[in-house]
Inverse folding.
């Protein structure tokens, strides 16, 4: 038997979705969690767990919150170094800032440097799993998975395929996009905690032939996830109409080519037509809300309340570096603000659920990560609810757990993250 560790604190887990009924009633609070060999083996009252696990090493976090590690359901790790680039909307932003940076990832050493930097920054922010776009270069995928494997991290990523409307040097073809994706999938999918996602960037940068080839690859590997972008900005949607004149709508450009399914992740999904909403729900596809990106690039206000009410599967994400933060705390704050702008404020339990269980569910990994329960993987984050004087003085006034947690959601950042445990190991 290997070592057991008992973490003491306010252990916050979900027994239900806080979008079904009273949000607070979906939450369970325990006093301690016991981990061993990368798994959660016990949760409950501290005195009981101490008696049951006499030899466990104690890590006492007093009244800090212990939750599942954050799950970021849509990021671009190659955009780490160009985050917070000024003044452009989506298409100009891609051409001015993103594509020139992504060109650099054919250099394996640079790809490794940024992958390492990205995983360091996000671990410090409490993110333990992410689903990332890479670049068209297989080197970028190898660099990301190699760095994640060394940390024992559960990650999802894929080679971003583009065969048009991107600069020379940043385009593959329908055939090489398929071949390179397939080779990477065969090399990495299912290795340790790594999963491959088939990754057409979005319809404007793929020909119908490329979408068709990637749809065929997905049909050959239906256990893989597929990630892309959908209906982020109005100009983009108009452009898609001219590029795919026979498509009924933006989603149809994917649907026609075998790229709509229950294991599909559609980033942004802001300006959806009724038919698109119906089809996404019918197939059980996942919508990924990227609120800091949506305000930063000026995209629009995601309809969280309406989409949840109609039963969509929804996760939360930074969309680094279109998003303006690596932190899921900052991302929850932005989701709250977008909810307010739509007249539907989100409860702190709903925000925390989106950043953990919700995102894990979009990745079809909610049986492994995103919550604290016996048998789940030991990816944990410990939050200090008084990490700055401004937050501490507000928390001191709190009358209940939600008033205590909300200032950290709204004003917290990596300073609130006291500790991160990945695969049962403290980072
Ligand atoms: N649409 C296509 N590519 C991207 C990207 O890199 N970031 C964002 N925010 N939207 C996109
Ligand atoms: Zn994106």
């Amino acid at each position: 038997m290997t070592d057991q560790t008992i973490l003491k604190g306010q252990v916050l887990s979900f027994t239900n979705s806080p979008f079904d009924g009273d949000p607070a009633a979906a939450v369970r609070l325990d006093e301690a969690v016991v981990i061993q060999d990368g798994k959660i083996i016990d949760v409950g009252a501290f005195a009981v767990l101490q008696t049951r696990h006499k030899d466990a090493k104690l890590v006492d976090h007093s009244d800090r919150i212990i939750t599942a590690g954050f799950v970021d359901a849509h990021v671009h790790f190659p955009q780490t170094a160009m985050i917070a680039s000024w003044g452009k909307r989506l298409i100009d932003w891609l051409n001015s800032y993103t594509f020139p940076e992504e060109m650099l990832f054919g250099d394996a050493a640079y790809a490794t440097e940024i992958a390492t930097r990205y995983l360091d920054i996000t671990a410090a922010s409490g993110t333990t799993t992410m689903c990332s776009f890479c670049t068209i270069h297989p080197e970028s995928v190898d660099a990301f998975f190699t760095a994640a494997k060394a940390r024992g991290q559960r990650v999802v990523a894929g080679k971003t395929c583009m065969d048009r409307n991107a600069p020379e040097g940043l385009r593959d073809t329908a055939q090489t996009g398929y071949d390179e994706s397939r080779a990477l999938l065969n090399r990495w999918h299912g290795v340790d905690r790594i999963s491959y996602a088939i990754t057409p960037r979005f319809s404007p940068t793929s020909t119908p032939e490329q979408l068709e080839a990637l749809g065929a690859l997905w049909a050959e590997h239906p256990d893989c996830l597929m990630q892309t972008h959908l209906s982020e900005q109005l100009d983009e949607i108009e452009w898609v109409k001219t590029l795919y004149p026979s498509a009924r709508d933006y989603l149809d450009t994917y649907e026609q080519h075998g790229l709509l399914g229950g294991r599909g992740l559609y980033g942004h999904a802001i300006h959806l037509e009724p038919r698109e909403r119906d089809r996404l729900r019918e197939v059980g596809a996942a919508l990924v809300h990227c609120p800091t990106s949506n305000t930063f690039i000026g995209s629009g206000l995601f309809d969280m309340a309406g989409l949840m009410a109609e039963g969509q599967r929804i996760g939360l994400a930074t969309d680094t570096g279109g998003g303006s933060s690596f932190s899921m705390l900052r991302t929850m704050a932005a989701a709250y603000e977008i909810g307010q702008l739509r007249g539907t404020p989100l409860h702190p339990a709903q925000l925390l659920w989106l950043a953990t269980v919700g995102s894990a569910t979009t990745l079809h990994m909610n049986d492994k990560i995103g919550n604290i329960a016996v048998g789940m993987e030991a990816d944990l984050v410990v939050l200090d609810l008084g990490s700055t004087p401004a937050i501490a003085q507000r928390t001191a006034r709190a009358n209940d757990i939600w008033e205590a947690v909300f200032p950290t959601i709204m004003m917290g950042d990596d300073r609130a993250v006291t500790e991160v445990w990945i695969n049962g190991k403290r980072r």
User: Anything to note?
Assistant: Residues 76, 90, 94, 98, 201-202, 229, 232, 293, 297, 319, 322 surround guanine (ligand 1) (CB under 6 Å). The domain at 4-68+370-426 is CATH 2.30.40.10 (Urease, subunit C; domain 1).
